[in-house]
Every structure is written in C-alpha cells, then in structure tokens.
Design brief:
With 299 residues, the protein is α/β, with parallel strands linked by helices. It is built from ten helices and eleven strands. The longest helix has 26 residues. The N and C termini lie far apart (57 Å).
Length: 299
Amino acid sequence: MNLHRLRIFRAVVEHQSFSQAAELLFMTQPSVSLQVRALERQLGVQLLFRQGRRMCPTEAGQVVYEYARGVLTETDELVRTLRELQGARAGQVRVGASTSALYRLVPAVCRFQAQHPGAQLQVHAGAAHEVCQRVLQGELDLGLVVADRVPVGLLVEQAAEEDIVLVGAPSHPLFRRSRLSLAVLGQERFVLPPAGTGLRPILDAQLTALGVAHGPIALELNSNEGIKLAVDQGLGLAFFVRCAVAADLAAGRFRALAVPGLRLHATLHLVRRPRRYLSPLLQALLTHLRGELRSPLPG
C-alpha cells in the first residue's frame, strides 16, 4: 500500500476538496487528482463522488479513510519515536489538559521546556472527555485531566489531589458575616459549568454526599475564565479547583469562603495509551510531571 497516496486521500476527505488538499500538501490539484485515481485503480473501487462543491467518500472510501487514518497515525508515531531515540533532549511530545488541569500543567511544562530547550512541546486544552478521546486515538501522547470518569482503555495514574474552593468577589455580602454554615449554600446564587461538564459532576456528587446542595444557578458557563468574569461582576459564588484561582486569590481579585464542614476535592489523572512506546523525551516529561504534581502549590 502506497502511504503517500493514502496521505493524499486522507487530506481530500478531511477537507472535502482536491484544491484544499493540494494547498495543504504543497502539490498541484492535478497531481492530487492523479494520485487519488491511481489509488482507486490499485484498490479496484471508487473512493470519492462529488456532491455540489464537495468531494465525499463512497462507502468503500469511508472504509479506506478510516484505515488510512489509523495507519498514518501509527506511521507518524513510528517516525517521531525513531527521531526521539537521539535522546531525551530532542523530539516532540503532545500533551492535552482539561480546563482545570491546565493551570497545573502549563507551569510544569514551562519548567520542563527550560531544561529541554531542544524539545518540541505542544499543549492542547479541551474538555476532559475530548482530551481522553484524543489520547486513545493516538493524537496526543499524554493527558492531564480532572474528571469523574475516565474512558476504558486508557492507563490512568492518580497524579495529585486538589482542593475545591468556594470563591466570591470581595464585595460579596457573605464576607461580612461572622459565621457561616452549610445551610447558606442553599440560599446563595451560583455560577457553574453546565450539568455533566467540567467540574460539575464531581461537585454535584460530593455536595450530595454531604447532604447539601448549591443554591439557585445564576448562570451556566463552560469556561473557567468566563465563570471568573461572572463572579467578578458579582453575579454569584463559584467553585474552582484551587490551582485555577490560586493567582486570583493571591492578587485579591477573589476571596475564598471557609464554610465549616465543607471539604471538597478533585483528582488530577495522568492518562496515556497502553502499549505505547515511551520515548526518552516522553518518559522524561512523565517523570517530571509526577514530581511537579505531587508538590503542593506555593502558598
């Protein structure tokens, strides 16, 4: 099987265009068309058909596309691994992080990069389930996620425990109270991630276990920074993994509410694909992250 033709065909399917695939691959459009036709002759099936301005895969073409994507991912991984055999100070590693875990990952990666200036490090942020799926598919080498569940098929390592803190703007009326109780949570307005996303499942489960619930939801946002803006505007209280608001608390932008009996936490998980070869660089980064994540945050 000609890997070059498979790579061209994959690009055409993903961009639904001969011309866009040609631009991406630095080829001419006739050359791209010629290679796809050659692949069709080799396999003895039609792979594409035109629908309006788009090139779409036939049923056989979809099968070939799925095969090509898997083969080319493994091939790229092989080439990358061989290059990385030169030593842990060179090569490429792609790491994913869920939105809360990003606050721990980025400082750790920056310190690793300073020690390995020849390394090419990529950090991709996304929802925890998206990061896990990309690790499973081989698109990311490693993931760091805060999640209540991790998909079957991944190697999972508990890397750290993080406190979940309740914060509000310094002007919030609760900070003028001398005493607080769990009952107050049912009376205040909150800014939260949508149900089933981000920190919300972990939060709902632990509050339920304590026999309490948060108050009415003033706004739902699927972004930590968006929630911070809403809290900043005095819209309500919010729960965060401590690392996500450590800088804000230190700067006085927010204050943490200490409610007797309220102790919430989240686990940071390192996830990776089983049976994946650990290059010297990836092994070095993994060791570095284990050490960094076990160390408490300053302050």
